[in-house]
Amino acid sequence: MQIETSKLEGFDYYMLWIVDFLGILRGRTIPNKFVRNALNEGLGFDGSSIIGYSTIDKSDFVMKADPSSFSPLPMYFYNKRVGKFFCDVLTNKGESFGRDPRNVCSTYEKRIGYEVKISAEPEFYLIDPMNLEPIEEAPGNQYFDQYPGRDKTEAFRMEFCDTLMLAGIEVERMHHEVGPSQCEINFRYSSMLRTADNILTYKFFAKKVAEKFGWQATFMPKPWVNRTGSGMHVHLSLAKDGRNLFYDEKEGLSQFCQYFIGGILEHAKAIAAVAAPTVNSYRRLRPGFEAPVYVSWGWANRSAMIRVPHYSDLKESDARIEVRLPDPTANPYFLFPCLVEAGLDGVNKKIQPKGFTEENVYEAKEKYETLPSSLYEALNYWDSDDICYRALGKEIAESYRELLMNEWKEFFSLNKGMGSSVTEWEIKNYLHR
Fold first, then answer.
1. Domain 107-430: CATH superfamily, name plus number
2. Catalytic-labelled residue, pool 46, 60, 398, 402
3. Over the range 243-260, which residues count as b (16 or more CB within 10 Å of their CB) and which as e?
């Protein structure tokens, strides 16, 4: 894709972004005069210093700006005129680097033969950087709160939305979440790669806008055990030849979609390791805070792991599923292929979805299988289920699993188990993700 010269004029610097195996944004910044090099030939960098990429004896890689990902940043972020690109990672021979998470996602999306429409809802808290507590003190459920004096975050959300729209991300709605100073901004669906890019842009922009207010934005799944956690619900549907395969004119939800749900539920315990990839993630997956605990699905049921949104008579344009298991620390470039691969496995094997519910799952828990209660348990299920290996490839899946297991071992060596309180180790490792 060519980019108009006029769109590149007037910028002082360009940020070049890549993504490591943990889904954390990395990058470098270049002055204006080098942007053509970044677009045409790319710029060399040390890949051995990026988590999951390579070893020091094979460290030379190239980051080549993806012109379709260009957008400006608000002037006040750096008091400079700055633009950003996501980059494709190339080997020193000019070939696509197979371990680049963006490449993993885009390659998977191209080979499956379906158009994936996917969006996500990353939740986060706004906290005081001095005491690491929410910037609001209002007690109780603050869902949809807009009352002056209690809700101190509306101006932030509007400012945040302005920055997302400047970056070309179409915001559809925004609201105060349940927790004090907890927020959610919903943006329009796109392809797997573009939505994953949008999630990382969303997190970066949330943190920069929070700085303007003197606050900090944290996407840590469960900073406090007595407050609601932050999830990243994923909405998705599949289409072919312009037709939504999740829709049936008579039944509303197609048999294809039901099999797809069946596949995700069948592999849910293994997928947990990529959907909830941190030690802290499993503090969120506990009863009482609207986070999923049991392998279940239902219409309009937010206690289930998979919800089929149902606000009125189901239309083709609205037919989709919401997977409520993931949280914002998930690497979306790995998560999305795993979810879709699991769903398609259900389609191929005609797996009828288990765990259908029309009730509050927490009150009828004996009927349903339980999701993993720790990262270690999730990784054990990963070992006995090949779904993530099929989605990501054996080499990448094994490397990613090793990273997560090492994280668990480090935590366990210091804490000897989960315990009932969020640890200093968790705060140190996850608060800034």
1. Glutamine synthetase/guanido kinase, catalytic domain (3.30.590.10)
2. 46
3. ebbbbbeeebbbebbbbb
